[in-house]
Each structure stands twice: as C-alpha cells, then as structure tokens.
Amino acid sequence: MSKPPSDGRRSLAILGYHKIGAPPASGWDTWFYVPERTFVGHLEYLQRSRWQVIGPERLLEGIAAPQRLPERAVLLTFDDGYRSNLRVALPWLRRFDYPAVMFVPTDFVGGFNSFDRDIEPDEPICDWDELRELARQGVSVQSHGASHRRLSELDPAEQESELLRSKAALEAGLGRAVQMFSYPYGDWGTDPEALAERMRRAGYRAACVYGGGPAPLPVAEPYRLPRLAIGPDTDLAAALEAA
Fold first, then answer.
1. Mean pLDDT for each 10-residue chunk of the chain (243 residues)?
2. How far apart are CA 45 and CA 38, in angstroms?
3. Packing angle of the helix pair 156-174, 192-202 (nearest 10 deg)
4. Cβ pair 126, 104 in contact under 8 A
5. With contact defined as beta carbons under 8 Å apart, do 100 and 45 qualify?
6. Surface-to-core class of residue 166, CB atoms within 10 Å of its CB (0-12 exposed, 13-18 middle, 19+ buried)
7. What beta strand segments (E) does 18-118 contain?
8. Among positive and negative, which fits the CA dihedral 168, 174, 180, 182?
9. What's the CA angle centered on 209, arms 207 and 211, to 5 degrees?
10. What pLDDT does residue 7 have?
11. Which helix (H) or strand (E) holds 134?
C-alpha cells in the first residue's frame, strides 16, 4: 500500500497502551489487555502508513520547534510498567525498530498493580533491572507519579511530592533524565494551570492526558498532551486517518 501524498498539515498522535498479551492464568480479561496480534497489527499499520514513529527526545524538541517533527508524528506509550510489556511488547518494538515510552509509578517498582486491586488482575511491575534493560533497548522510562493516586485527590504539597519523588527515584535508579509525566487515571487535578507551573519547576517538560486523538502542531498545551487510549477494539487506522 503506497503512502498518500503530503497535504502540508502537521499532526501529533500519542498512543496510550497498558498491557500487551493475555491476562495471567489466575486473572480475567479487561479492556486494557491488547492481544499481541492486535498490537503487531498496529505496528504494521504504522510502518506502511504516512505516520512516523518518534521517540520522546524528538517530541520534546518538537514542542519548541514543531518544524523539526515529521508531518505525521506518533509516539508509542505504555502506562504502569507491566512486566508483560518487557516480555511481549519489547521484542516487537525492537523488530520494527520503534522507540517508545513507559510511564512507571515508582512506589510499585518490583511489586504489583495494587492501585487497581479488584478492578484489574494482579500483574507484576518491572523491577529496576528490568527497567534498565528497557531503557537500554530504546524504551524511555518516565514518571507516572509515585503512588499512582489521582491528582485531584491531593493537595498542592502532595502533588509536588508526587512529581519530585518519582522523578528523583527514576533518575537515581536509571541514571537518565526524566522530563515527561503521565497523569494516573488521566487526572490532571482541579487547577491545571497551577499544576503545570509545579511541573515546570520540578523539571518536567511535557505531560500526557487521555482523551482526543491526533492533535495539530504546534502543541498548544505541553502539560496536557492528548493521548488516544488503545484497547483491543481500537480501530487505529480510522482514528489516525481522521487527522
């Protein structure tokens, strides 16, 4: 399939995955499990389409200088740091030579997703060695807060603690800069402007929310980058070609 001619418009699409593959034997299926074959189909579609997969460094560069981004830029992201993504998603990312971002809640590194108890099956979260391996393999590990609590339930001091504590833990554990944030549950608090200022002071340059699809460039609000939530029934081609 040939790629359509350029129309001169620039768009950014951020795809938000959680789990790739089947649930554990003792668990149950939910919308957040994207079958491996479906995930591979998404990567195959991106490979043959007009969309170009970029990494977080290029995204951050493009926020300041959008002309440096491709006309159709897409960023692959994964929330929560599930070990299944290391086992199932990473080999396919390497096969396609695609970078990605994994957002991790630092209080749960090496543990389980107890923040979703009784909602999602128990799944192991990557430990520090596994996160370092992901980083070596082209997956940038960034912040999903520390405690995975909704920011609207926290006061300003608690929000600042989430931002600073998670960033410090990741930078100490990985030896790499952390400049991006993914809001737990897509919740950016009750005062987004004040929160954005706290994020700037903490050293973050961008943050992802949920809702919406591809967004026109230049980026209007770097601390509220829209992200397309991906589930097993997502028609990726339809969602992206509408841009």
1. 56 97 93 98 97 97 93 97 96 98 98 95 97 97 98 96 98 98 94 95 96 89 96 95 72
2. 10
3. 30
4. yes
5. no
6. buried
7. 19-20, 33-34, 52-53, 72-79, 100-104
8. negative
9. 150
10. 53
11. helix 128-136
What's the pLDDT at 241? Answer: 85
Q: Estimate the crossing angle of helix 156-174 against helix 128-136, to 10 degrees.
A: 70
Query: Would you state the pLDDT for residue 2?
Result: 43
The answer to whether the beta carbons of residues 109 and 165 sit under 8 Å apart is no
Q: What is the CATH number of domain 11-241?
A: 3.20.20.370
DSSP label at residue 125: B
Helical (H) or strand (E) element with 229: strand 228-229
